[in-house]
Structures are given as C-alpha cells and as structure tokens.
Design goal:
By secondary structure, the protein is α+β, with helices and mostly antiparallel strands. 27% of the residues lie in helices and 12% in strands. The protein is globular, with a radius of gyration of 13 Å. The mean pLDDT is 94. The structure holds zinc ion (ZN). Zinc ion binds next to loops.
Amino acid sequence: MEEKYLLRHICEVCGRTEILTPEEAHSQGWDYPPKMGQFRIISPRTCPNCMMMDTVWAALVLQGKTLDELTDRQKQTFNRILSEPESILVVEEE
Ligand SMILES: [Zn+2]
C-alpha cells in the first residue's frame, strides 16, 4: 500500500509541526510512525533536529518516570500518541 495520506507531524520536543506524507517525513529525518515506530505505541516523535533523550519515551523508559511526573506538555504528547493515527491524520477537503 502506498502511503499517500498526510499526517500532522508534531515534534514533541520543540513543537515544530509539518504536514507531510509518511514518506516525505521519513526522507526529511523525522522519527515518526508508521516509518519509525508504530501508531499508539510510545516511542520518540521528533523532528530532524531534536534528540530522543528529551521525549516522553525517554522520560518513561530511560528515566523511569511515572505518568504523574510528566510535564503537561508531555502528558499531551502521551495522549496524542495513544489516539494515533486519528489524532494526527489530516483530512483533505476537496
Ligand atoms: Zn524538534
């Protein structure tokens, strides 16, 4: 299946947002599902410039934080990831 749909790629670290196909995002260096990781599974969601050490994934897995210890922004990211791909899918109006 060709991945022609558009996703709102939101860097969870710096907030950069770009609407791209999965193919475009991957070639530009984004770490984003479905090319990197899977929808609804916590893993880094980063733009080409940011480090995975600053992600929700790193906070939970590497630093051993609980959900309560996340920042509000990290909690938002967490919730957004759990409701992917609907939470980032861009519906084009024709
Ligand atoms: Zn970034």
